[in-house]
Amino acid sequence: MEREYSKTLEYGGQILCAAQRYFPPLLKQLEPPPPVLSVFGDISLFQKRSVAIVGSRQASAAGRKLARDIAAALSGEGFSIVSGLARGIDGEAHAASLGGGTVAVLGGGIDHIYPPQHRDLYRAVSDRGCIVSESPFGHRATARDFPRRNRIITGLSEGVVIIEAAERSGSLVSARTALEQNREVMAVPGSPLEPRSAGSNRLLKHGAMLVRDAEDVIEALSAPQSRTMQSPTPTSFEDPEDELVISIGQIEAVKMAFGPQPLSIQEIARAADIGSARCASILVELEIAGDAVTFAGGFAALAL
After folding, report:
1. pLDDT tens track for 197-227
2. What whole-number percentage of the chain has pLDDT above 70?
3. How far apart are alpha carbons 295 and 276 in whole angstroms?
4. Rounded distance, CA 286 to CA 291, Å?
5. Strand locations in the chain, DSSP E?
6. What are the residues whose beta carbons fall under 8 Å from the beta carbon of 151, sequence distance 6 or more?
7. Sign of the CA dihedral running 71, 72, 75, 77
8. Which CATH class is domain 2-237?
9. d(CA 79, CA 50)
10. Contacts of 48 (CB under 8 A, 6+ apart)
11. 3.90.180.10, 3.10.20.30, 3.90.1640.10, 1.10.10.10: which CATH number matches 242-302?
């Protein structure tokens, strides 16, 4: 712990404990709150009203524009925007709210930039916003760190806006976590023909607040919470495989299933004889290790 503390301070960060004055007040409401956070940037943002915006990594052009527009407008109204620095919706929300302050929650330590393509965005957020992590300094994120990261994202926020979430996605797990934390769950509706909106539309069916723009978000957060959102069963939100341990054999099977030419995750999963959700988690681990590269549209290739 002493070494972690020294490394964090050398990096320019701080370590906050739940009992401290500057610990995010909304996180203190959780049962239990995270005992320790590493932070890098402007911790005064924790005192502002905040909204989480999350969604698909493979977002459409329309979804990306909605994320930018909603984040920029909420930022202009004094809200801090919280997200996970992922590709797609997360990145757009962060970039659009730099002027008003944005908070990026990482799965790894505050020094571990993931995805590596967001290095410039990471620097912009650390300069003009705040980087937050529950993981120790130097920790490289693995797939099992992201549910904990999502709990921090929703815990830091008054509500979460879901933009383009597929039927089984991490964004829907975040929505369920937000509901358990008594946070407002909001979703942007999408076409019934668009798979990327299937999960968002399911949330609306179960009672999430329908939002189209920042005004709707502000109205939802200002209204008394008299509505009751139905909590679907866990299988409505996540692939049952997500909770299973990934074996070394499965990692090797995925590595054997594709090469330097990009293939879709579905093709790789089929060749490796595992489910798509588990395959996607393994590809995250392989990319972090430098053994794979992922591309827009759900494709991946072995790193050269």
Report:
1. 999 999 999 899 999 999 999 999 987 654 5
2. 91
3. 16
4. 5
5. 14-17, 36-41, 50-55, 80-83, 102-106, 130-133, 159-163, 184-187, 209-210, 263-264, 292-295, 299-302
6. 30, 34, 177, 181
7. negative
8. alpha beta
9. 5
10. 78, 79, 80, 101
11. 1.10.10.10
Residue with structure tokens 């009672």?
Answer: 207
- Of the candidates 4, 37, 2, 3, which has an alpha carbon nearest to the alpha carbon of residue 18? 37
Whether the predicted model's global pTM rises above the 0.85 cut? no
Q: Where are the domains of the chain?
A: 2-237, 242-302
* pLDDT tens digits, 32-90: 888 899 999 999 999 999 999 999 988 999 999 999 999 999 999 999 999 999 999 99
- Give the Cα separation of 237 and 263 in Å (integer): 26
Q: Which two tokens stand for residue 163?
A: 């933009």
Phi, psi dihedrals of residue 225, rounded to the nearest 5°: -80, 75
Residue 111, token pair as written in the block: 């020094």
